[in-house]
Amino acid sequence: MSDKKLRWGILSTAGIARRSVIPGIQQSQTGEVYAVASRDASKAMAFAEELGIPKSYGSYEELLADADVDAVYIPLPNHLHKEWTIKAAEAGKHVLCEKPAALDAQEAEEMTAACHKAGVIYAEAFMYRHHPRYEQIREHIHSGEIGELRGIHGTFTFNSAGSKENIRFHQDMGGGSLYDVGCYPISAARMLIGTEPIAATCHAFFSPDHGGVDMMLAGLVEFENGVSLSFDCGMWAAYRNTLEILGTKGRIEIPCAFTTHSSPNYFIETADGRKEIEVPVVNHYACQADDFGRAVLEGASYPFDPMDSILNMRVIDACLKSARERVRVTC
């Protein structure tokens, strides 16, 4: 591996950048956080000093104009993903954009097209799928250890209902639980089943006290051969973060499926009994940064094609339409 490091610029001082992505890049083998930008120069400077980042800028445009920045991470509110991904691509920067990629599949298509035209690498930041345990889990499925796949059930809920100024409660900014956390089980099911859904049926609680966004949503996403994803997501419920993969001969249970705040271990239950699969504790944000870094620096194949973000948004579009219109929607 080359000694060269990918120099990252961070567009905003968002909490996810501070808590998770920046530490992940700093712990990675391939990257370094070189610059951060905010629309408030003093805020950017304080943020940079706190986290040991060499440069800070008082505008996103200034950061994109810095020739020493190789790639940008975009943790901006959802409605700004398209604008700044395209601007970053036009500035020649590789782009890691926070999930969900966009407000709809059309926006995601425009983003990926702009990155392709500019010749830069583009990826959606689903960090969980870079954890090595998911490659192991795919092997369990493909080996037939749990028999034929029958379905997947996922949950991702938390309670932030008391925070009335939360940007997640603004429809025009891409708020709602489906965008924020429901995208995870959808992404995981597509990755593990290995095909694209054909239809979705969803029901949601659109809260008038929270900008009319979906504070809770439950859905059924249909795949071919009778396989389905059932899931629920929410921002006004007790915390859950699970995935169950059901086969004809057994099941795989992942108690902490999308974050690794507790143990990353998972369980396999078959006729032979229940066993815990121990998994090394790794920072999946660092794994994500290294997969991205190797793609840029070494020409390695990035594990997930840019088309993946478009396909995931198509399912999200179908789920939202179904919930709003109370109908089954083809994907």
From TrEMBL:
Keywords: Oxidoreductase. Residues 134-253 form the GFO/IDH/MocA-like oxidoreductase domain. Residues 7-124 form the Gfo/Idh/MocA-like oxidoreductase N-terminal domain. InterPro entries: Gfo/Idh/MocA-like_OxRdtase_N (IPR000683), Gfo/Idh/MocA_domain (IPR050984), GFO_IDH_MocA-like_dom (IPR055170), NAD(P)-bd_dom_sf (IPR036291). Pfam families: GFO_IDH_MocA, GFO_IDH_MocA_C3. Transmembrane segments: none annotated. Belongs to the Gfo/Idh/MocA family. This is Gfo/Idh/MocA family protein. It comes from Marinicrinis lubricantis.
